[in-house]
């Protein structure tokens, strides 16, 4: 009998980055120096998830550009997923993933065109046009995120 695959917990960006640093036996201060950041406090805010998703996203882009950690593809994917968890919260992330799975076979270009058309109708007719939509609020947001 095969063992069930282990499910990795959903981590925030700060938690995921801490794990990567721990695996490399690096401190936040060392990473800050490697990236030539002026303030270690910024690094600690990112690791504590108190800097906000926009700050974390900008830091992640800088981290990839500097390539000082030589992230593996898997580590990059984990950090990208963790950034989404930080952005939307665990429940929001799981909802988005469920919608992506449900809409996986939807033609995204057609859905995007429909969404643009629907937005134009709303601008001309007011909020009552939303009632004729063929997408629910969640599906509409899921399509926007895939575009």
Total number of beta strands: 0
What does the radius of gyration come to? 20 Å
Look at the helices and sheets and give the structural class.
mainly alpha
Tertiary shape: globular
Low-confidence stretches: 124-136
| Order of helical and strand elements | HHHHHHH
Instruction: Estimate the mean pLDDT confidence.
Output: 78
Strand content: under 5%
Distance between the termini: 42 Å
Portion of residues in helices? 55-70%
Number of helices: 7
Largest sheet, described in full? none
3D structure, described in words:
With 147 residues, this protein is an all-alpha fold. Helices cover 67% and strands 0% of the residues. It is built from seven helices and no strands. Helix 1 runs antiparallel to helix 5 (73-102). The radius of gyration is 20 Å and the shape is globular.
What are the salient characteristics of this protein?
147 residues, mainly alpha, globular
Précis, in short:
With 147 residues, this protein is mostly helical. The protein has 7 helices and no strands.
What's the topology here?
Layout: H1 13-23, H2 28-34, H3 40-47, H4 53-66, H5 73-102, H6 108-125, H7 137-146
Helix pairs in contact: 1-5, 2-3, 4-5, 5-7, 6-7
């Amino acid at each position: 009998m095969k063992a069930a695959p282990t499910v990795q917990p959903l981590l925030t960006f700060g938690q995921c980055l801490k794990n990567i640093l721990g695996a490399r036996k690096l401190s936040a201060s060392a990473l800050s120096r490697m990236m030539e950041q002026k303030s270690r406090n910024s690094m600690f805010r990112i690791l504590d998830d108190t800097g906000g998703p926009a700050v974390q996203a900008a830091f992640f882009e800088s981290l990839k550009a500097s390539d000082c950690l030589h992230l593996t593809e898997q580590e990059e994917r984990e950090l990208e997923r963790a950034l989404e968890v930080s952005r939307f919260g665990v429940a929001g992330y799981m909802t988005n993933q469920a919608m992506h799975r449900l809409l996986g076979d939807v033609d995204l270009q057609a859905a995007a065109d429909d969404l643009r058309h629907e937005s134009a109708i709303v601008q001309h007719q007011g909020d009552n046009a939303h009632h004729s939509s063929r997408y629910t609020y969640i599906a509409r947001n899921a399509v926007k995120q895939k575009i």
